[in-house]
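I hope you will forgive my troubling you with a question about protein structure. The record follows directly beneath this note:
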Amino acid sequence: VSKRLYGMGCYEISLGDTIGVGTPGSMKMMLESVMKEIPPGALAVHCHDTYGQALANILTALQ
């Protein structure tokens, strides 16, 4: 989906953990997969802190 949106001209793809269940490990796996198709500068993340993982997920995304 991200590749198609980027190809259509979307300049930023936002990846959201809308219910806050993501972990640093799942964030890393998702970003590694998406970055095979989309340049990192075109990505954003939106994390919720339902289970106290938002800051750890953001740190993982920034690395």
In short: The mean pLDDT is 96.
